[in-house]
């Protein structure tokens, strides 16, 4: 997220951000991403192009901010009653969402217009938050749990790496196999 | 790599590609990436802007092709006499190179102008090739070895994920720890 965009929550600043983000989403739905220009977005949002440039620098930073918003999880992970089931269910969902054509294009947009790495960090923070929710529940149930970084490194990272760099090697079984590897090979000793 | 760029190796086509890539590298060294425009690149390369547009579509595809060339490993992995040492040495080098500011910016460029995923796939193919060289040598020595995908999923992927999404959690010890995890936890049963 550009520091400028996050600077003033509430008030006019928040309204401008909301209007501009909404304009991008509408135009992407209508035209696809290749065709978007700042004047077109500004006109749809009812602001001047210079407002957009002042706030986002260039269009790739704006698209990155919008993409990160769309990657925000809408609900907490499902609670199926056991760590293994919760992780498998979440990993299969995550892979399906992120490897879909819109998912891939949001990830690409988020990384592309992100000079300071803040938006990429936010994507990762969303995954950490979901994983932590699952681990906290399991701990509360009295289950033995791996740590967050084990799951980020050995479940989330392999899925994201294949999505970005090795497409075509992805299915639900791959997500489940990664969780199985954590359970049989990477659990801390009790 | 855009199919157009790969279509005609040799002859005029290869000379144009070479001149344009060299122009990009020179201008990046002189000005940084933010300032590059197609007319500027074309003028330095001694070709017309329309030659560049015809071949690469837009500047982000050209920057992606140049970035992938720069990510090509220049030498095979060092042979230190054992699988463990070879992998640790290679992983530490890979992490250092990819997490450096130029490394990060090549990875970002490679992903950004890559509508068909060919350049991202090439980045991954380079890593697979290096890993396979190490594994083939170890097999020839009679060592017990993990498979390529285990190393891609549990050594390369975690490093690349942190480079892209969780910067600030990276050092040589992290690379060595991932290799240790493979040795103690993820080796196939003999």
TrEMBL record, chains A, B:
Residues 37-56 bind DNA. Gene3D superfamilies: Homeodomain-like, Tetracycline Repressor, domain 2. The keyword Transcription regulation applies. InterPro entries: Homeodomain-like_sf, HTH-type_TetR-like_transc_reg, HTH_TetR, Tet_transcr_reg_TetR-rel_C_sf, TetR_C. It comes from the Bacteria. Residues 14-74 form the HTH tetR-type domain. SUPFAM superfamilies: Homeodomain-like (SSF46689), Tetracyclin repressor-like, C-terminal domain (SSF48498). Keywords: DNA-binding, Transcription, Transcription regulation. PANTHER family: HTH-TYPE TRANSCRIPTIONAL REGULATOR RUTR, TETR-FAMILY TRANSCRIPTIONAL REGULATOR. This is TetR/AcrR family transcriptional regulator. It comes from Streptomyces iconiensis.
């Amino acid at each position: 997220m550009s520091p400028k965009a996050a600077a003033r929550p509430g008030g006019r600043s928040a309204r401008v951000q909301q209007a501009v983000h909404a304009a991008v989403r509408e135009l992407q739905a209508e035209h696809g991403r290749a065709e978007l220009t700042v004047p077109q977005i500004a006109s749809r949002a009812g602001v001047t192009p210079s407002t957009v440039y002042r706030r986002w620098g260039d269009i790739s930073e704006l698209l990155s901010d919008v993409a990160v918003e769309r990657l925000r999880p809408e609900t907490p992970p499902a609670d199926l009653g056991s760590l293994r089931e919760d992780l498998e269910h979440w990993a299969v969902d995550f892979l399906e969402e992120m490897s879909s054509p819109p998912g891939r294009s949001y990830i690409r947009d988020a990384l592309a217009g992100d000079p300071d790495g803040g938006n990429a960090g936010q994507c990762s923070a969303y995954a950490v938050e979901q994983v932590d929710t699952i681990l906290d529940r399991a701990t509360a149930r009295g289950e033995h749990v791996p740590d967050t970084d084990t799951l980020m490194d050995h479940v989330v990272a392999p899925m994201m790496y294949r999505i970005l760099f090795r497409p075509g090697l992805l299915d639900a079984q791959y997500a489940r196999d990664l969780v199985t590897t954590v359970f049989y090979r990477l659990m801390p000793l009790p």
